[in-house]
Specification:
Helix 2 runs antiparallel to helix 3, helix 2 packs antiparallel against helix 8 and helix 9 runs parallel beside helix 11. The chain is globular, with a radius of gyration of 22 Å. It is an alpha/beta fold and 409 residues long. The protein has 2 domains: 132 residues, Aspartate Aminotransferase, domain 1; 240 residues, Aspartate Aminotransferase, domain 2 (3-Layer(aba) Sandwich). The mean pLDDT is 96. The strands form 3 sheets. The chain has a 7-stranded mixed β-sheet with strand order 2-8-7-6-5-3-4, sandwiched between helices. Bound molecules: pyridoxal-5'-phosphate. Pyridoxal-5'-phosphate (PLP) binds next to helix 4.
Length: 409
C-alpha cells in the first residue's frame, strides 16, 4: 500500500548491507511500532553491557571503588551527546527518578501551587500532586488543545501561573499527544517570575540535536533509553541554575558531601552498567548512519506511516483520521482511532495488550480529551513494510472492534 501524499523512504541498512533491524535483537515474529515507550537496545550495546557485568562479577572489590569515576566518564560522554555541560548533568535511572529527585529536593513551600498541563505524563503528574499535598498546596492544570500553536500553548500555561506558583512542570515532548510544547518561551516567562521549572524531556534524547540550546530551565529530565537506544535505566537530570545545589539523589550514599552532579555518581552497591554501556549505543548509531541521517529517516518514515494508516482507516470509516497536532514531533505521531476505543488511559493500555496478543504487533495507544489515538513511533530498524502491515492487518481489526464496541452500547 502506498500513499499518494508521502514518498516511501528507502530502508536503511547496516554498513555490511544487511537490514538495520539485524543490529537489534527484536523478535522478528512481532512487528515493533512502539519504540517510544521502552526503547530498543542494539546488540552491540547489549554485548558491551554484558561484558561490563562479567567484569563486575569477576572482581567486585576492584569494580565498585572504581565505579564513580567510570560513571563520571559516561556522564561526560552523554552530556556531550546532548550538547550540555557535564557539570550540569547527573545520571539517574529513569525520567521518573529524575522528577522524583526534583520533587523530593525542593524546599517545602507550604501553601504554594504546582502548575502542570493536561498533556503531562501520568506518573510524573502524580509525583507533582504528592508534592503539592506535602506543601499543603494544590496542582493547577493548564488545558492545552491538541492543535494549539506555540503561542496558544504558551498562553495556556502562563495563564495558570500565579504569585503562589512554587513549581512548573511542563513536557518538552508530550507522551499522550506526541507534540512539542514551546518550553523555551514558557521557561523564560517562569524564570522572569522567579518560578522554578521542571521540563520533562523524557522522549527527547536522540530525537533532536542539542535539544537544550535556547532553553533556560532549572531542571530537565531525559531518557537515553528511548530514542537514543541506551540500555534501560539510563537518564539525565540536567540542572543549570543555582537550584542544582538543592538536588540530592534518591539514594543517600557516600557521595553526599560532594556537589552536584558528582554526588549522583556514587549510589552504593548498584548495577550501573547501563550508564557505562550507553556510549556504545550512541557510537553505534553515529558510526553506522550518523544521527542526522537517522533523524531524517525517522521523520520521513513517520510521514509515510501517519498518512498510510490514516488513509487505511478513512477507507473503512469514511472519516478523516489525520490529527492536526500543533508542533508535531519528527518520530512520534498520532492517528485518530475509530470512535469508541481507547477513550481513556486504561482502555488504551488494554487495547495495546490485545493488539499484541491477537495481532502480534507492539503498538502504543493513547487517549486525550476522550478520543483514542494510535501513537506510532519510528526508528532506524523500522521500514515502510511495518506500517503497511499495520494498515493491512490492524486497521481492519481495530475498526471492527470499534464497531463491536458501538453495537454493545
Ligand atoms: C513524558 C514522559 N515522562 C516520563 C516518562 C517516564 O519514563 P521512565 O519510565 O523511564 O521513568 C515517560 C515514559 O514514557 C514519558 O513519556
Amino acid at each position: 500500500m502506498t500513499s499518494p501524499l508521502t514518498a516511501a523512504p528507502a530502508a536503511l541498512t547496516l554498513p555490511n548491507g544487511r537490514p538495520a533491524a539485524e543490529g537489534w535483537t527484536l523478535d522478528p515474529n512481532t512487528v515493533h511500532l512502539n519504540h517510544g515507550s521502552f526503547g530498543a537496545v542494539p546488540l552491540v550495546a547489549q554485548e558491551r553491557q554484558n561484558a561490563l557485568r562479567a567484569e563486575m562479577d569477576s572482581a567486585p572489590v576492584a569494580w565498585f571503588p572504581a565505579l564513580p569515576s567510570m560513571v563520571g566518564a559516561a556522564r561526560a560522554d552523554i552530556a556531550a551527546f546532548l550538547g550540555v555541560a557535564p557539570d550540569a548533568t547527573a545520571l539517574v535511572p529513569n525520567a521518573s527518578g529524575g522528577a522524583s529527585v526534583v520533587f523530593s529536593s525542593l524546599p517545602v513551600e507550604r501553601g504554594l501551587e504546582i502548575v502542570v498541563t493536561d498533556h503531562g505524563y501520568g506518573a510524573v503528574t502524580m509525583g507533582a500532586e504528592r508534592l503539592a499535598r506535602r506543601w499543603g498546596g494544590v496542582v493547577r492544570t493548564a488545558h492545552i488543545p491538541l492543535g494549539a500553536t506555540a503561542l496558544e500553548a504558551h498562553e495556556a500555561v502562563v495563564a495558570e501561573l500565579t504569585p503562589r506558583t512554587g513549581l512548573l512542570v511542563v513536557d518538552h515532548i508530550t507522551s499522550p499527544t506526541a507534540r512539542l510544547l514551546p518550553v523555551e518561551s514558557i521557561a523564560a516567562e517562569a524564570r522572569r517570575r522567579g518560578i522554578p521549572t521542571l521540563v520533562d524531556g523524557a522522549h527527547v534524547p536522540g530525537l533532536y540535536d542539542a535539544p537544550l540550546d535556547g532553553l533556560e530551565c532549572d531542571f530537565w529530565i531525559g531518557n537515553l533509553h528511548k530514542f537514543a537506544c541506551a540500555p534501560r535505566g539510563t537518564s539525565v537530570l540536567v540542572a543549570g541554575s543555582r537550584l542544582k545545589h538543592e538536588l540530592y539523589p534518591l539514594i543517600d550514599s557516600w557521595g553526599a558531601p560532594y556537589g552536584f552532579p558528582e554526588r549522583f555518581d556514587t549510589q552504593g552497591t548498584l548495577d550501573l552498567t547501563s550508564y557505562l554501556a550507553t556510549p556504545a549505543s550512541l557510537e553505534f548509531i553515529e558510526a553506522s548512519w550518523g544521527w542526522g541521517a537517522v533523524r531524517a529517516y525517522m521523520s520521513e518514515l513517520a510521514d509515510y506511516a501517519e498518512h498510510t494508516i490514516a488513509e487505511a482507516f478513512a477507507a473503512i470509516t469514511g472519516e478523516d483520521h489525520l490529527v492536526g497536532v500543533g508542533m508535531p514531533v519528527n518520530a512520534l505521531r498520532l492517528v485518530r482511532l475509530p470512535d469508541g476505543i481507547a477513550t481513556n488511559h486504561a482502555d488504551a493500555d488494554a487495547l495495546r495488550d490485545r493488539v499484541l496478543a491477537e495481532l502480534g504487533v507492539e503498538a502504543a495507544f493513547t487517549s486525550f480529551d476522550g478520543v483514542g489515538y494510535f501513537r506510532l513511533s519510528t526508528h532506524v530498524y523500522n521500514t515502510t513494510a511495518d506500517f503497511d502491515h499495520f494498515a493491512e492487518r490492524c486497521v481492519p481489526a481495530l475498526s471492527e472492534w470499534a464497531h463491536e464496541q458501538s453495537r454493545a452500547h
